[in-house]
Write a structure and sequence with these properties.
about 400 residues; Ribosomal Protein S5, domain 2; binds alpha-D-galactopyranose
Amino acid sequence: MEKNKLIKEFQQVFSIEASEGVHTFFSPGRINLIGEHTDYNGGYVLPCAITYGTYGVVKLREDRRVRVYSKNFADKGIIEFSLDLLEFNAEDNWSNYPKGMIRYVQESQGSLPAGFDMYVSGNLPNGAGLSSSASLEMLTGVILDELFDLKLNRIELVKLGQKVENDFIGVNSGIMDQFAVGMGKVNCGMFLDCQTLEYEYAPLDIDGHKIIIINSNKRRELADSKYNQRRSECEQALELLQRKLDIQSLGDLTEAEFEANSSLIEDDMLKRRAKHAVFENSRTKRALKSLKEGDLGAFGNLMNESHLSMRHDYEITGIEMDTLVEAAWAQAGTVGARMTGGGFGGCALALVDENKVDSFIKAVGEQYKQKIGYEANFYVASIGDGTKQI
Ligand code: GLA
């Protein structure tokens, strides 16, 4: 998106003539290559930041008001609140994300000296599982950091973003999304240990291939999905295993250790939930190894296994995602495909031979429409940097 155009839109919305003191930022969305529902289980994830995301234009005010406007929710108009009263308000809709972030930054850094006007415009399909909410949280956090020269440690900001989601919005999500958005690096995946927050950047050597993001257009919203339920099922399974095993999280177990002890979990459903967490974690480690070795075939197979595990053991895919992924698997040139993100709708990813991208999109699009009745959207992913001033 063009910076000057964004600034003009900002000026129009807030009736501000001068462009001095106006700053522009970009915060990406994320895709997760593999490692799904492992973050809150103390395991590994392998996400990347993408070049679709959320733009923000801001200018300081002289009072303590904050005025925010999103082009994506233009019908809500300008939403206004005070730095001194930052309570969750369902009617305030999207602006609860920036509001929550301002609140927690103030709680950790002390009261901010002044309010600001913020114009937001995003090109991530919202509710598509590409972390539009984490994108907005980190956008706000980095804006505050730069505007007030707070010199915040980026990982601390990532943790505050997660706190907004957990404590302000009420979704019990893990650290992956805010980390991927805040720490992204161009053309790299991030291999993150969600227990210790140790991480490494893994260059994505996928020459001759493209990552295709496929939006099922089945909307998902974490707040009303079964996300929290899956998390508590994993906690129940962990407690049962802890009767005998000295472990902190499901991420501490190898596949063999899990198999040897799985009879501690009598309930078949709970056992399958835990199995997904343990095996997905091990797949994520193997995926990093195959990326480093340039073995894309092995990487693709792990993506496929990950989808099957989410479908049968974690039960978070649904007919839309399964249709998309099965259609993707059937195409010549597909190296691997899986649902990405929290589940219950959202997006799938496919790693596809770059010469087959057009035929892939055509065939998968047709099959999806025929079976589901509405269209899927396709995006060729570019892997970009984390949240920054532009
Ligand atoms: C959502 C959550 C993440 C993670 C994924 C599933 O995106 O916000 O913390 O749990 O689902 O991997």
